[in-house]
Amino acid sequence: MKSKTIFRSLILLAMIVLIMTFIKLPYYVTQPGMASELEPIVEVQNGFEDEEGSFSLTTVRFGRANPLTYMWAKLHDYYYIHPLEEIKREDETDEEYYNRQLHMMEASQESAITIAYKKANKQVDYTFHGIYVDGIVKDMPAADVLKVGDRIYKVDNKDFQTAEEFIEYVGKKKAGDELAITFEREEKQKQAKIKLAPFTEDPKKVGIGISLITDRQIEVEPDIKLNTKEIGGPSAGLMISLEIYNQLTEKDLTKGYDIAGTGTINTEGEVGPIGGISQKIVAADKAGIEIFFAPNENDSPTSNYKEAIEVGEKIKTEMKIIPIDTFEEAVEYLTKLKEKG
Q1: Domain residues of the chain, as ranges?
Q2: Under CATH, what is the fold of the domain 33-60+104-122+225-336?
């Protein structure tokens, strides 16, 4: 009789746990991810791939909170709880968020390729294909017509190649003017007319209510392939640029060390801050990384680097954490680094 009671209690507990996993709370939970080597992800045609050490990107795992993961995050260090609005834009769907992260990653890849190839004195050219809708402002005219991921390539029958061209053109219009938009969605061409309206937060400024990313295809010699389909966001930019440059040049910059880091990068080689630096330090330490590059933000007192140092001290890591403001700084540091004994 007692064993039956225990069995029924266990079944009831299992059912409660199962049900709780399906309850979605208005939060996301983030936690340390992993360090992933970049050599299998980056492939420069006929490039130098005999690295004694490695370059790795670092990740943060995240997911929608349920009661169990929420409680788990409350009880564990470096598990953080975020309200939905901290992760996703207002009224942004999961699909729109995913598309936005992929476009940000694509832009980051292009910058990483550009800066690495130019540093290696290799050819870099671009072909422009229009502009991607990266975000839509609620209650603005575009909200009823466009979706995140749409590619606009004509406005008023004029070809547009960059986001800057679009912004300049719209800036000359006034509220009530109408734009004829030609765009592509899921490989189908569509057309629509959208009137300009003033923005609520700045009535002197008019627009249709979208943010944009230039859709361009980079063309380089030698050719390159990046297998980053599962990676979203721009935070791997710095490390991707270092891996590309290392494959373009004969001398191995890793010097036998396992090196990771994080930071956005632009076509000028400037390294920008990212989110989740604490969790990335924890992930890198667990992976046995020896050197970690952290965005220095021009020595800001609230920089990623400062936070990384604090976390490194708390977890007693032996990993060297290096402040970086530019791609050039990272290359210079590695060039001066002694070979691992």
Answers
A1: 33-60+104-122+225-336, 125-216
A2: Ribosomal Protein S5; domain 2 (3.30.230)
Class for domain 125-216, per CATH? mainly beta
Q: Please tell me the distance from the alpha carbon of residue 89 to that of residue 136, in angstroms, as a whole number.
A: 9
Residues constituting the chain:
341
In this structure, are residues 56 and 239 in contact, taking their beta carbons and an 8 Å threshold?
yes
pLDDT tens by residue, 213-262: 888 889 999 999 998 776 778 899 999 999 999 999 999 999 999 999 99
Counting Cα atoms < 13 Å in the Cβ hemisphere of 215 gives 19
Contacts of 154 (CB under 8 A, 6+ apart): 130, 160, 180, 181, 182
C-alpha to C-alpha distance for 115 and 56, rounded to whole angstroms: 18
Same fold, 33-60+104-122+225-336 and 125-216: no
Residue 312 CA to residue 320 CA, distance in Å, equals 9
Amino acid at 184: E
Q: pLDDT-based confidence at 16, cuts 50/70/90?
A: low
What is the rounded CA–CA span in Å between residue 149 and residue 171?
23
More confident residue, 318 or 49: 318
Could you count the other beta carbons within 10 Å of the beta carbon of residue 218? 16
Of 36, 235, 241, 303, which one is the catalytic site residue? 235
Q: What is the 3-state secondary structure (H, E, C) of 135-158?
A: EECCCCHHHHCCCCCCEEEEECCE
280 classed as catalytic: yes
Q: Which of 56, 111, 280, 303 is catalytic?
A: 280
Q: Which of 105, 24, 25, 31 is nearest to 61 (CA)?
A: 31
